[in-house]
Amino acid sequence: MNLIARTALLLAVLAVASPAQQEPSAAGGPPPAPQVINPFSPFDRAAYEARCKQLGATDAHLQTFAAQIAELGVSRAAENLMRAMLPAFDAAVKLSEAADPRAALDLAKLLVATEDSAVQGHIRYQMAKVFLDSDDPDRAVEILTEYLTKNLNTTPLDPEAAFFYAQALGEIPRADLAIPRFKAFLQWFPDASERFRATAQQRIAELERQQESRLHVLADGMKKTTRDLRKQKTDKPVQVEQEGYIEELDELIEMYEEREKQGSGPPSGNGPSQSPASQSGLPDGDGSAKQLEKTRTVADRWGPMKDKDREKIESEVQNSLPPEYRKMLEEYYKKLGTGGSNQ
To answer: Do 267 and 259 form a contact (C-beta atoms < 8 A)?
Structure first.
């Protein structure tokens, strides 16, 4: 049984396994994490509007922006303002909303073409959403790292960029890095949307439980190795990781099978979780049943594309992007190729 098949088996085991119960420490929990200086400044609306005027925003644009802040919040209002000012950006975002595989390429080309930090921030934010929606947290971390080092404090998107950075780290999975960043988000952005804050609190709880469970730690490691194999990383370190996970999984499967033979039922006496983990997608939209309907993903659209259309995108990646974004997009489209069937 290969690693991908064993990962599926492990996830089936996880469906009936509950995290190990941990005794609270005498001190009431782990010591507090060291305080980190908040690098984020409060959003400067006047400076942002002045920058937008330099980019071509009209009085009508800014009036709409002001009206939408109260209705939609400053982040969505700013996104709409940038899209109204920059038709090419609007077109790329529409491709993203339609799960069109070309969206990442068009956004990358726009990023390379602009030197304005605020515009770059909006583009990188949208690229991160594309990568997260495509189940590519590694690429999301890359582009959000750029946002947080080059575009900090230039747009009202900072709270969401900080949230999605933690979210992407949690999906890689790197719980050890994601948990402190989720906690920093909650500390630094007390006025952030309750949707984001509630999701951050939920993810902290989930990631902390997973860290405490040998089974979940193994699952996280196997997911990472499976991603590496799908990216055709087959060098010695990956092979050693794979062998170690297979040995540990065999031991755990044996343990669970023995418990089942003894009639003890699911480990710890619990059935399937009544509160399954939240999906890794963006915490947007309402909680209605329509969200349960299957929607077409970017990978679903990439596979059935005509060969000439895929080749055109791949050619543009090679010929229109500098090396760092060429590599990023090559890896992104290679990953898409493992999620759909070519025709």
So the answer is: yes
